[in-house]
Every structure is written in structure tokens, then in C-alpha cells.
Amino acid sequence: MIKQITNDVKELWKLLHPSSAIEDVHLYMPEDTDKAIDIGLKFHGVEQASPRLTLSEGYRNGLGLCIFLAMAMADNAKDDPLFLDDVVVSFDREHRGMIADILASKFSERQVIVLTHDRDWYSELKLQLTSGKWQFKMLLPFVSPVAGISWSHSTSDFSDARAHLPHRPDSAANDARKIMDVSCAVIAEKLE
Question: Mean pLDDT across the stretch 12-39?
């Protein structure tokens, strides 16, 4: 099982960091104990027994995500949904896009539920995952205990911004500006 997960971690790592100086990422069982698993890698060609001292927080989080996804791939016979909750907190835009590529290529036949507070990544995912298999929903802002939390019925973020107009026009304008900032940047990047 360790070898299978290691092979998948290596593959996922290369997809997430194609031009990285970090290579040969692998899981291993340290010789001094038979109950632990650690992660080895080469950092600029130098063998490292653990990523804790050499990798940044973003790279460690990326490595953790690769291990999590590799474990999910190893257990894909169950057909359980895969939940990812705000996994891109310490990722830059380039790596966020690569996560979408991984989801599309490795988990296209599995139910994946991605939760995020990050409007930028939400917009990027909507543009990248367009195969017809993906659905995107947004929660409406909390209004009252009677209404509770509910899904937006619109497919446009602008409709949600318009919903603020009667009571919070400043919020509506801020939301519209944020939507334009994100959407225009993502579209411009796609158009190069």
C-alpha cells in the first residue's frame, strides 16, 4: 500500500509542481521505529529525510494534499465522495490552477465536493472545470434565523450582488467590483 500511495504521490506532485527542484518525493517507514511513516525527498539534489525543514508552508500543504489525494485514489473502489475544504489557502494562483487540472484528470469519475471562501479560486474553477460534469453553487449571505443558510439559485455572481441592493448598496457595489477584478484577471490570463 505504501508503494502504491508513493507512486501516486510522485505523479500528483509532478502535476502540481512540474518545474520544481524538489523531486523523488516518497513515503517510507523509518528504521528506528516500525509504527511511523515519514516523507523523504530530494531538495536541489540533496536527499532529505523529512520535508519539515526544507519546504515552505505552501509546499508542505501541497505535499499533504498530494498524499491525501493519493490515499483517496488508492481507496477509489468505495466510491465515497471526496471533500476538499479550503485546500488552497497557502497556494499561489499558478498552483491553484494545477489543482483544478488534477481534479479534472484524476477524479473525473468521482464525486468531489470542494468548499471554499476564496472567490478567486471559485471563479477559476468555474472556468477550468467546464466538462459538464461539474456543478457550482454559492451560499447566500445569512439573513435571519428564519431563512437560515440557503443556496443561491442564480448562476451569476452578479445576481447575488444585486440581492444586496435594497439594504446594502455599498455591499452590492463592493461585490460587483470584486467579481470584475477576479473574472477579468482570470479571463485575461486565459487569453494571454
Answer: 81
